Amino acid sequence: MSPAAQLVNDRAALAGALSGAEEPAGHPHGVRATARIHAAYNGRVTTLPQLRSDGPFHLRRMRTDGSSAKVGIIGAMSAPLGGDRLTIDVTAGDRAVLEVTTAAATLALRGPTTAPATYDVRLTAGEHAGLRWLPQPLISAAGSNLRQTYTVELAATARLLLREEQLLGRTDEDPGHLVSRLLVRRAGRPLLDQQTAYGAPEPGWDGPAVLHGHRAVGQLLLVDPEMGTRRDPVLLREGSQDGSAVLTPLAGGPALLATAVAPTSSALRELLDEALAHALRE
């Protein structure tokens, strides 16, 4: 059996063992994988000259109604697990319009090592390009240990819509340890650099100043040179038991950031959709 086939079998065995008390099987050194998407504009439509699947990432072209391109990411094995090093590198060249989504939620699981897994998403948009990163949620399962990083490089005239949703634990379980950083640069200058951390051993992550008992958290970033921005933050559903969100302008450019917390994934998505509707009316 080839090493790749053996790895897939190991991951399948792990998925079946998660509900039991036994230690999961898996690759002892973790998976190293980098998937690449490159979109280019040919004068009429956006094409995909590079679509490179790797490791747990299977990339698939999806139909669109116009001149843009759309790519779906399908999980080919259980990932990320402890010790994995996973990267997705996405580039929308000048004037290209690209949307990237995922077929299902990403599930961070405990692995054969206590070392953290890393999941790096690198997004680049050229002049007059449009890039939409709209994956399904990331679920931080009990016992998992994940470091997730978004690194975004935008040209001055690029447009970006980025949605990030995180579910802290599955039903009736505590979350794993999740550290997530979002770093955005526009025209070579910093636009946003923030880090969040949830789950033990982080202090106070579930307290009233952070999540206040909620288990779904997310943010939505909209960057558009043609967009007007608010002068003051806007609170959405303040004091509601179904969660709340705040929509704020960023000082470094024509950009709005929505941050939301909610008890469930569906309530979180509704809040982020509501925040986007507010942003697009500006």
Write the layout of secondary structure elements.
Layout: H1 3-17, E1 32-41, E2 46-52, E3 57-62, E4 69-75, E5 85-92, E6 97-102, E7 106-108, E8 117-125, E9 130-134, E10 138-140, E11 145-154, E12 159-168, E13 177-186, E14 189-198, E15 216-223, E16 234-236, E17 244-249, E18 255-262, H2 265-280
Parallel strand pairs: 1-5, 4-6, 5-8, 6-9, 7-10, 8-11, 9-12, 10-12, 11-13
Antiparallel strand pairs: 1-2, 3-4, 12-15, 13-14, 15-18, 16-17, 17-18
Question: Can you walk through the features of this model?
Answer:
This protein is mainly beta and 282 residues long. The chain has a domain at 3-8 and 31-212. It has helices spanning 3-17, 265-280; strands spanning 32-41, 46-52, 57-62, 69-75, 85-92, 97-102, 106-108, 117-125, 130-134, 138-140, 145-154, 159-168, 177-186, 189-198, 216-223, 234-236, 244-249, 255-262. The strands form two sheets. Strands 3, 4, 6, 7, 9, 10, 12, 15, 16, 17 and 18 form an eleven-stranded mixed beta sheet that branches. The protein has a seven-stranded mixed beta sheet with strand order 2-1-5-8-11-13-14, with no helix packed on it. It is globular and about 50 Å long.
Features:
seven-stranded mixed sheet, 46% strand, 282 residues, eleven-stranded mixed sheet, 2 helices, mainly beta
A few lines on this structure:
The chain has helices spanning 3-17, 265-280, and strands at residues 32-41, 46-52, 57-62, 69-75, 85-92, 97-102, 106-108, 117-125, 130-134, 138-140, 145-154, 159-168, 177-186, 189-198, 216-223, 234-236, 244-249, 255-262. The protein has 282 residues and is mainly β. It is globular, with a radius of gyration of 19 Å.
